[in-house]
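Re: folding output
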Amino acid sequence: MDRRQFLGTSILFVGGSALAACTSHPQGGSSAKVTLNQWYHAYGEKGTQEAAKRYAAEYTKANPDVAVKVTWVAGEYETKLNSALLTSDAPDVFELGNFRYQLVKNGQLAPLDDVLDGDRSDFSRTGLDVVTVDGRTYGVKMIDDIMMLYYRKSVLDKAGIAPPQSFPELLAAVTKLTTTGQKGLFVGNDGIGDAAYLLLWSGGGDLVDGKTIAFAKPAAVEAIAGLRQLHQSKVLLQDFTTDWYDPGAITQNAAAMHWCGLWAMPAVSKALGADFGIVPWPRFGANGTPVARLGGWYELVNAKSQHIDEAKKYVQWLWVKQADVQKDWSLKYGFHVPARMSIAAQATELSTGTAKEAVSLAQKYGRSFPNLWNTVMRTAFGDAVAKVAKQAADPTATLGEAAKTCQAELDKQLT
């Protein structure tokens, strides 16, 4: 189990998901003039809650007028957060894995451009774009989670296969690597996972282009339909004992190639030693580009807080100025990348081998979901992709209908 929400949708791992929110006493002395309420989702990695409280106490020690109350929220974090933001008990500072344009439209977020002032260039362009609306930035990235394609070196070498650089190479490789006891590729138990998004992006397409849904354009449809080829070739591992975000499929020799995340690298290394490598998702078509998925968490400030200035100063201290805190949070309790590029470069755990390569892949090829992409759109797109991949539905017509649903949802957000 891991503490992060991986992907844009972010898969939440918690210890005891039915638990209620746990609110600590304010970290710091009782003489503070202001108390900030800071929300975290209930990370499953041991030591995270204690670390969050420690950071808060350190801030109060340096700023005695401000105490921080850490609220640890188990269960459906985003649902509880959305409800709380409508009440007087709303947090002043909170984290979010899926940044939503709607929060800005509803006036629920304070812009944080001044928090990033002077340090903006140290955050990835991809990470900043997700939280930028109409030229203003509303979030500070806390950690980056990188997703890429793992492969077994010995298995590929034995088959005489080089790590694939294009979709035809990927299809040929996983076809040859599929044997009686092992499938060529694992992207998820449903045989879909992130693959449709990866194919779309790797073909040079996108989900949203300005005010228009873009995944139903001919080149985009062609790329997404590559998933049908993978299904028809019977190369995909499905219904495994764990899903794609757990490295079990590759470490247990159930798949020769496995789409997974940096968080899994310590477990993969422990199981396989040096017998693994990583590559981005291969490009689709002559105009395509490789893709690495970039997820993670953002820190945000409630626009209706009674203490916006204090909240912004705390966010700046915690996620912009404190290098030791950011390395501790990313690497001591799991395996993730500090969001500030200069701090990631200082981390010895990320300075060599495949970990260093993963960071480089993210910086070169990282893609994230746009902030306009919401649950309704995800469901419509996912249903269409499943029909195309598994039921041989017409890609153009099926994705075209899904695009209409998504366009109506997009128009609703933008009006």
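--- second protein (sequence, then structure) ---
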Amino acid sequence: MEETQETPDIAGTEDERSLDIQLKDVKEETQRYLDNWRRAEADFANYKRRTDEERGESRRFASASLVINVLPILDDLERALSSLDYRLAGLTWFDGIRLIHRKLLLTLESAGVSIIESEGQAFDPRLHEAVTYTEGEDGKVMAEVQRGYKLHDRVLRPAMVVVGKGKQEEPKEEERPPEGEQESQSA
């Protein structure tokens, strides 16, 4: 009997190594494609969410330019109503104008417009525009010169207000020079 000694099949092991390397390369490429696909899918989901939000914002604020142009008309109507004599209140045309004013306010309100409350509030530069300062509680809005409006949560027009700057203190009697000395010092 002849003994056959098995020799390792060198060609087979090289082919297996080559196949293992190819398989590893294909797996890495597949993983890379999968990762790219997941990133693209996440990017698309973010893009879709962002465009939906922008579309919603556009719908909410599409009327902003129209409202901004209507506000001066509303101001004029309010000034006209406030300047009329109260004895005219019973006349039908006066009541008709008041109803038109109320209807305009309700229409703006239904579109998301709200009045910025000012008088007695703390001055907020995001909501108020100080036109002058007067004696009064420091940092409080003392009077409203022109009403401000917001559309949903955005300021359309800030309220023009008069802001308190504290009380002016008169010099104490001790600090004032006697009247005779004032004249001699200025001469």
